[in-house]
Amino acid sequence: MRIRRSPIFEDSSLAEPAVPPLEGVRRVEKMMGTAIVVDVRQPVDPDLVESVYDWLRWVEMTFSVFRPESEISRIGRGELHTDHASPDVRRVLNRCEELHEATEGWFNHRPTDRPDRPLDPSGLVKGWSIDEAALMLRMAGVENFVINAGGDIWAHGRPDEDPWRIGIRHPDVPGASAARLSVTNLAVATSGRYERGDHVWGEADGGFLRSVSVIGPELGTADALATAILASGEALPDWLRAFPGYDLVLMTSDERLLWTPGADGLLLRDPPSGPGQPAVTGPHLPPGGNCDR
To answer: Cα–Cα 20 to 30 A to 41, which of 76, 203, 264, 288?
Structure first.
């Protein structure tokens, strides 16, 4: 894992290219408690984009822990048996059980300290729903797009000749990014202290990690892993070995950035435009090791 002191970059959860696209569509709609952006950089049928938002609306209606009529709320109150739930609900809850076991309980969709939410798969649902939305676009032949759900991002193809440039939200400085990535055909999910109270429970050590970003092939799994690592407080838990293909960018309480070797080629080395911005440098720690705290 590499380590460096974090600079503060300008706000850039998703940086725009220098020249705006002449074709495609960019749409923003608020749902799931955040703004969801679908940004397509090629000709696309607007009805296809509408179908993506229709899907996300259905997910919110079905999985919301804030809607008493949702299937998740009804299951939590014992009014609906899981066997009688919709196939997608059963699929998500089965995956939650798998992740709970694989992370040694750090991903927890049944919080014992939240009697108002006896069942809460929120740590998986948003990312999983974006995975499905991305699949809808790809199956329709759309190759160059990004879906940004409050900083959890699926980036496919390229906006132009360069990969997508993604900023990792700074956990302490509103409107700032702690690091920037250059990615294509990858998902990036971040959990941070700004999310406390949503679905991060069971904090182990009182704040060694300020934010956890996970990069990998599925946003749902990346989102769940980010939640679990932040809750555990351990930078490289042993159980992470069960998830090959996923890499980490972490920010500690003393504003160090730590990252696994697979993320090394994704972090942008050149600072953003403007004076006084340091480049990305740092020593190396092999994957699977422990970080000095």
So the answer is: 264
